[in-house]
Design brief:
This protein folds into two domains: 20-59, no CATH class; 62-200, CBS-domain (Roll). 40% of the residues lie in helices and 16% in strands. It has nine helices and seven strands; from the N terminus they run βαααβαββαααβαββα. The protein has a four-stranded mixed sheet with strand order 1-2-3-4. Strands 5-6-7 form a three-stranded mixed sheet. It is elongated and about 80 Å long.
Amino acid sequence: MAKRSEGKDMGIPKSVDITDEDVYNAMKEIPGYLDITPGDFKEVYRHAYRRAVERLKRSIKAKDVMTRDVVFVDIKTPMKEVAQALGSHGISGLPVVDLEGKVVGVISEKDFLRHMGAKDKMTFMAFVAERLKEAWCVDESIGERTAGEMMTSPAVTIDENKPIIELATLFKEKNINRAPVINQQGGLVGLVSRADIIESTIL
């Protein structure tokens, strides 16, 4: 198990509600005569603001909002260590890299459940409840298998330069909540989630 940490320093301003008083005071600061009503001014501002937001969204890349503090494992990591990493960090999944550091898959609670005989889309507790009805013991051999053997591959990854405006659509299409962020060489540089996108989006 490894951890890559460089901090997260992206800060994007949120929208503000402009009042008539704000508009009047702003107009007073502009020299000369303005033949425009506060209502017209606010309407122009709304359109300009919307266009600015769209422009900024396209200029903000995945690398600007991603979490750089990433827990990951390599393909040789035993599954018992993967389970310990997920449990100790309170996460449900993590990226798997090859011996060169390139992302080759992801491993999550769903992978554990799948290899332990869970039905499709069965939750962890539903699986436990079903097994408790039987004389069920955990297959200890699973702990000795490697992340490379049990991971889901290929992983859905995101190029670090991909605009965040495109990420929401990708997450919806792939039905995922987070994805590893990679550089041009395929190396892991971070992790981006729906929460990262929401927090960094100008409303």
